TrEMBL record:
<dbReference type="GO" id="GO:0006508">
    <property type="term" value="P:proteolysis"/>
</dbReference>
<keyword id="KW-0645">Protease</keyword>
<feature type="domain" description="Xylanase inhibitor C-terminal">
    <location>
        <begin position="99"/>
        <end position="252"/>
    </location>
</feature>
<keyword id="KW-0378">Hydrolase</keyword>
<dbReference type="GO" id="GO:0005576">
    <property type="term" value="C:extracellular region"/>
</dbReference>
<dbReference type="InterPro" id="IPR032799">
    <property type="entry name" value="TAXi_C"/>
</dbReference>
<protein>
    <recommendedName>
        <fullName>Xylanase inhibitor C-terminal domain-containing protein</fullName>
    </recommendedName>
</protein>
<dbReference type="InterPro" id="IPR021109">
    <property type="entry name" value="Peptidase_aspartic_dom_sf"/>
</dbReference>
<dbReference type="InterPro" id="IPR051708">
    <property type="entry name" value="Plant_Aspart_Prot_A1"/>
</dbReference>
<dbReference type="GO" id="GO:0008233">
    <property type="term" value="F:peptidase activity"/>
</dbReference>
<dbReference type="Pfam" id="PF14541">
    <property type="entry name" value="TAXi_C"/>
</dbReference>
Length: 261
């Protein structure tokens, strides 16, 4: 089996690491736009400027990362239609290959947080401040003011549960870490929603995409970790994302990506 990696490529270079799975790479498919070495621009003449692609990322966290899962990168006519898709515009910033979105707010368990949309507004001409959607592995980054508000609301949420207590030391260097007395996986963890400008453009992030639940060393207890304007792969878990580069739109909707991804 040979592997081609894909992502919002800017400067695409094959890794020199000699790990088994990296040695099997046959190439890297850069799906950014506005650069001649990216697949999107290379295929543009053949698609008459109507190129679109789709990915659907299954749940991948510290518990599932070593399981064999399969997903697909789909193009053009192979992309299934969904009439009730959320739609938001894809924006360009100068000659950047990244996909920018107009983020307007964040909700926790359906309640809009007191964060001004100006926190996510474009500042300068290099893409500062504005939200980016990115298929790289890893966790989202949130502007500091928005992050502080979200952190405060999460703390209030956790106070409702007596079996949760703050754990100040954690191996992943994260701001927020809680410990609980029994194994409950993702039970009682809140849903985070990103609100974008557009048609029903609310990206609902399931708890598996916002939190990590890992075993504590030498204990049966579990600790809950939350990671902290980049929407990365972890937060796109079970989200079918369609990039329509002709219309400059992102279409997305919730989907079980392990089934018919």
């Amino acid at each position: 089996m040979y592997i081609v990696r894909f992502g919002i490529g800017i400067f695409n270079k094959k890794s020199s690491y000699k790990e088994y799975y990296l040695d099997m790479d046959t190439g890297i498919m850069g799906m950014g736009w506005g650069r001649p070495d990216n697949f999107v621009d290379q295929i543009d003449p053949q698609s008459n400027g109507k190129f679109s692609f789709l990915y659907c990322l299954p749940v991948v966290n510290l518990q599932t990362v070593y399981r064999k899962t399969m997903s697909y990168l789909r193009f053009g006519a192979d992309i299934p239609t969904q009439p009730n898709s959320s739609i938001t515009n894809l924006q360009r910033v100068k000659d950047m290959a990244l996909y920018y979105l107009e983020l307007q707010g964040i909700s926790l368990n359906g309640r809009r947080l007191n964060i001004s949309a100006t926190v996510f507004a474009l500042r300068g001409n290099i893409g500062s401040g504005v939200c980016i959607i990115y298929s790289s592995l890893g966790y989202s980054r949130v502007a500091k003011h928005a992050y502080d508000v979200l952190l405060g609301e999460l703390e209030k949420h956790y106070l409702k549960f007596k079996n949760l207590k703050r754990y100040n030391s954690n191996p992943l260097n994260l701001t927020m870490c809680y410990e609980r007395d029994k194994e409950e996986e993702f039970k009682n963890l809140p849903i985070i929603t990103f609100h974008f400008k557009g048609t029903q453009a609310n990206m609902v992030v399931i708890p598996e995409g916002s939190f990590e639940v890992v075993d504590r060393y030498n204990s049966n207890r579990k600790r809950v970790l939350w990671f902290g304007n980049v929407i990365r792969a972890h937060q796109q878990t079970n989200q079918r994302s369609i990039y329509d580069t002709k219309r400059k739109q992102l279409l997305f909707y919730l989907e079980n990506c392990l089934k018919n991804a």
